[in-house]
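Design request, tokens follow.
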């Protein structure tokens, strides 16, 4: 049964992203931090997603110069893994610039295996305490092996993300982003995701994220169409 309006209960960035797993603000106190997250996603099922529900387990490390994100996703007959790392070549209280890479593997049982490799740069800026932005640009190489064909299909493209984040109060962040990739979804440039979300901190250790994502295909052509909508809720614990 299709789900037409449901906002999940209990995401980077985005990245962070994605997507929804990365904060954009480059401020840092010089101490490393570890975070663990649990995400539940519900999809309207109008597109090609194999399942209308998914569970994600995520780990995030944020240091003064290096940050990393890793996680797994289970959605029906699909199992996915993503790992990404970023080294900040320059980082201050107001802006940061660095480079890094992403690897993503998607296993669709009895159908295909997809491997995605991304390498690129990121820029983040925080001109005032209540506003920040981040921009990502990657070279993207996709290899998909379809079992029925017995061979691999390859594709060279790019991946981009632009995210704006606002903090009306210290414990709450509101953000919007447009991206051609997310933490567990890697599409070609003409199939962007439009993301809106919020993150609320509880006692400076726990946070709850709510996120709504609208997926489009062939966006820059006359046949542009919305593929589906996905709602996510995440709970994060920072150690």
């Amino acid at each position: 049964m299709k789900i037409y309006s449901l906002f999940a209960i209990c995401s980077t960035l985005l990245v962070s992203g994605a997507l929804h797993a990365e904060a954009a603000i480059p401020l840092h106190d010089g101490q490393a931090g570890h975070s663990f997250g649990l995400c539940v996603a519900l999809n309207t099922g109008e597109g090609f997603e194999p399942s209308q529900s998914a569970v994600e387990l995520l780990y995030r490390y944020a240091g003064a110069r290096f940050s990393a994100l890793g996680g797994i996703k289970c959605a029906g007959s699909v199992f996915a893994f993503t790992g990404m790392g970023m080294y900040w070549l320059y980082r201050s209280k107001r802006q940061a610039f660095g480079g890094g890479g992403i690897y993503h593997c998607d296993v669709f049982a009895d159908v295909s295996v997809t491997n995605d490799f991304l390498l690129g740069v990121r820029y983040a800026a925080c001109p005032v305490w209540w506003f920040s932005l981040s921009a990502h640009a990657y070279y993207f190489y996709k290899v998909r092996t379809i079992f029925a064909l017995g061979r691999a299909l390859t594709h060279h493209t790019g991946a981009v993300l632009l995210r704006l984040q606002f903090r009306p109060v210290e414990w709450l962040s509101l953000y919007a982003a447009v991206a051609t990739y997310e933490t567990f979804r890697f599409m070609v440039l003409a199939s962007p995701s439009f993301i809106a979300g919020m993150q609320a901190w509880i006692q400076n250790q726990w946070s709850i994220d709510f996120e709504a994502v609208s997926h489009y295909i062939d966006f820059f052509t006359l046949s542009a169409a919305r593929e589906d909508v996905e709602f996510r809720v995440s709970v994060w614990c920072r150690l």
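Comment from the thread starter after seeing the answer: thanks! Confidence is low (pLDDT under 50) at residues 1-30.
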